[in-house]
Each structure stands twice: as C-alpha cells, then as structure tokens.
Amino acid sequence: MGPNPLIGVIYHWIGGLASATNFIPFRPIKRWSWEIYWIIQGVAAWVVAPALIAWFFVPNLPGILHQAPPSAFWHAVIWGALWGIGGLTFGLSIRYLGIGLGYAIALGFCTAFGTLMPPLFSGQIVTIAHQSGGRVILLGVFVCLLAIAVNGLAGYLKEQEVPAEEKAALGERDYSFGKGLAVAIFAGIMSSCFAYGLTAGKPIALIARSGLLSANRADLWQNLPVLIVVLWGGFFTNFLWSVFLIVKNHSAGQFFGAPGSNPMGTTPTGETLTNLDPANVESELRLRPSTLLHNYLLAALAGVIWYFQFFFYSMGQTKMGKYDFSSWTLHMASIIIFATLWGIALKEWKDTKYRTRLCVTCGLLLLIFSTVIVGYGNYLVAR
What we know:
0% strand
C-alpha cells in the first residue's frame, strides 16, 4: 500500500475531530475536581486504549516491543514524558481560555515546533525547500500559522467583549486571557515533543511493519506500537502531577463519592443544593452511586476519544509519503478547525461583535485552505 495524501488528509481530519471532542465529556461531570477526572481519562487514553487497540491490530505486539532498540525505546519514552508536561498545561489552557481560543493558541505553537523542528534537526529542510512539492507543503504550514494568528486575534477580541458572568455560564469561570496565554504558549511548545517521540520511535515502527507484512496485514498499523511507548512517558508525568494535586487538595475521597467542584462544568456545583436537610448536609452532598458511575464513564470516554486522535494520526502519517513531517500540521489544523466549530456550537462566541465573528470565520477558512495546500504538496511529492 503506497502513499495516498488524500486518504491521509481524511484520516487526519477524523483524528482532529476526536481531539477537539475530547474535552466535551468533561463538562457534565458532577462535583469532581480536575485532577480526579484527569487521571481517570489518562489511564484510559495513555495506558488501556493504546495497548488494547495495538494488540488487536498488530500481531506479536509483546515481541515487537521486546525487539525495540533500547535507544529508540527510551528516547520515545523521554519525549513522551516531556509531551506529558505539555498535555497537563494544555488542559489548564482550555480551563483559562475556553475551547476555541485555548486550542488555537496552544496548538499554534505546537504546530510550528512540531512540524518544522524535526526536519530542521535532520537537515531535511534544505531538500524540502528545493522541491516544488516541498515548497507547497511549507506554504501550507505558513498559511496554517497565519490562520492560528487570526484565531488568536479573535480570542483577544472576545476577551474584551464577553462579560465575566456569561463566561461563567459557559463553563469558563476561571477565564483569564493573560494567565491562559502564558500557559497555552508553554503547553504548545512542550506538546510538540510528541512529534519528536514519534520520530524517535521509527525503528519500532519498522519492526512492526515487517511483522505486519509477514502476516499479510496492512502496514497502516505500523505506528501503533510506537504510540504505546510514547504514551507511557506521557502517562508518567501526568500521573505524578495528578497524585500531587490529589494529596495537596485532599481530594482522594472524590473517587468514592466525596463532593468536589468541576472547574470546567457548566454549573458551579453540578447539582442543585436546594431542598437539602441542614442536619445531614454531608450525606446529601455526597455523590449518589449512579452519579459516581456516570462520572467514571464520562472521564473514561474522554480518554478513549482522546486516544483516537493519534490512532487516526498514525494511519494518516503512513499515507502522506516522503515528507510525512507535514502530518503534524494537518493534525493540528484539523484539531483547531473542529475545536472552533465546537466553540461556536457551545455559543462561546455568541455575544461577540461582528468583527470578532468575522475573524473566527476567516481563521477557520484559512485552516481548511492550509490542509488542502499541504495535502496537494504531498500529492506532488508522491507523484
């Protein structure tokens, strides 16, 4: 199965939709603190889902991981751990900026570093710039960054126009442009380490590809074992931070029904506090078993949805051909496109002025245009 950039772009769009949808199940979670549902979605996203899905599609998965060169294995883990720091702060950027703006700023920096740094370090960028298809790809990357800047401007305008009470009603009670901007920039730079982790794990992918072809299976799944290793590193840093917050905030009891507060929820408490028995407030405030189960399922669902972004990313990357570094741009652009659409659907931009909504529309159209340009550039290279 050879390169097919059109199919690759479609896979990246599906992955972008999965990533942009990841935070939606967090919103209806009732009276759980951030660290509680974050660690649960992390177990689902970074441990359970990658192992189960790779085991299903890739024959002899334990043998492949055992054969992996130690340098490739540990470099992938280390890059994954650094990416995990970005993932932590990315969650905070959504908390401070909302879905639309948080994704735009964080992923803007993630796009620039994750797309351009690997070919710069490898020296491949010179070859890319001397080929017509390569120049078209670089043009697409530039258009993507321009679109992200336009989205960032829209977010700044929104900050000036939407009252704090309305942000709270939309689940943005902690909205802070200044704090969120700093966190989002840091998150974007650190999140780009995922691209380096995938590059470091290519020897593992080659072993998987050989096994897949020997078993007469599609090499489309060759990157799934690499995802396992990179995500182990990401889980390590996220687990440590979540445990620290659980100890610091004394929130471990929330696993068993003690009440907390969801900073991303659409209401302050998640349930009404009316008609409580003042003599038995603590028992009334505890989550019912059905509510607790509902929270666990929502957090796990968020994790599984999150994993599918890279499930489809790994498939799309195999289809992009010689310059698969451009997959990162396609992935990031797709995420921002669907995150912007989610922000519109959730009425994050409802009370903004016409110029702000025009900025959002222009940014969205530029992002779509950038994916077309990058896809066409890869088509030229493949041809």
